[in-house]
Request: fold
Amino acid sequence: MSESALVTDLYQLTMLAAYRRLGLGAEAVFELYARRLPEGRGFLLAAGLEQALDFLETLAFTPAELDWLRGLGRFEPAFVDWLGTLRFTGEVWAPPEGTVLFADEPWLRVVAPLPEAQLVESRLINLMHLETLIASKAARCVLAAGGRALIDFGMRRAHGAEAACLAARAAAIAGFAGTATVEAGRRFGVPLYGTMAHSFVQAHDSERDAFAGFARCHPGGTTLLIDTYDTLAAAREVVALVRDGAEVGAVRIDSGDLLAGARAVRAILDAGGCGHVRILASGNLDEHEIARLAPAPIDAFGVGTRLDTSADAPYLDCAYKLEEYAGRPRRKRSWGKATWPGRKQVWRRYDAAGRIAGDRVALESERGEGVALLECVMRGGQRLRPREPIAALAARAARELASLPEACRALEAPVPLIAEISPGVRALAAEVDRATGD
Reply:
């Protein structure tokens, strides 16, 4: 997963060249946020902050990258040399990963000299967008599963290796028990889970030989895939195998009517004295299918393609916009894409039951009621606290999901909370509009 400084849009470099030539290097404030939530989403779950901070902390152009830029012939040599000295020296404010967010609420506030804050836009959106997108989808699966274990099976259809690993991390933050993606286990400490493929069964002359061989090679409670041929016949083979002393922890069903299939398999296992053998279901699952399968005797779900691609909502309408420059508030007024100026904080109120009662987006200088969501996590280009383990992030996400109003949690036609925009923010916007001739 490259952290090359060239993972950016060309216009970032052309703007930097102009900023440098025109002497525009004062302090800038940018905020990253979602303009609106996709249809079918009642909330977002913030994720990706660690990767964003890693990127900022290590931002630098390598000699080879600088040589390549010189070879393009479109930038002045002095500008390319200057790029070689550029580092991120600013500060970052953000809600902790695993925090529930809604539209117009900042995921990040970046405060840095204008060229630094501008250059990092593309990669910050790229990182924060992907993990927040997947974590939000995964959280809905967690809500639908009702406490049953979920495993990320989506690597093979994720949009590249980096996306697969970051999706596994995002899902773990949302509450997934683990992933089948081995590199995510190494890189992020996400617990690893796996079974077998149909090809393993097909490579043997009989299903019984395949099961027996796999169980012998992986003692301690392996998981056997039982739907290569006849699922119910395979379940009976598992019963016979266990009676012969094999250690089988679970069986996996990956096709057919999972509701009826799980019930039939459970009956065979129980009748054969294999009540301890669990059932794992997979195959084109998402939160809606998991909810439909709630009555089934399924102990865990493997969720793949529809999770790692966030199939029903494959992108978030998020933006990274300038809110202040050189000490003056700034505001974009484009139709449908207007921004709120100034450095902002989100204040969250809770009711007596611990549910979110309302959010207010206010100026940093305004006194708020409730809990302030944005914290300073980087100053002087250096992070201010140690990395949080996945388990801690997942625990926070669980608390956040429990605090959601029922309308936000709903799987069908959820109603997201609408954050209140404070009088101070509205007044500042009006002031900026008057100053710019509107």
Remarks:
- Residues 257 and 363 are 53 Å apart (CA to CA).
- The radius of gyration is 25 Å.
- Residues 121-145 form the longest helix (25 residues).
- The mean pLDDT is 97.
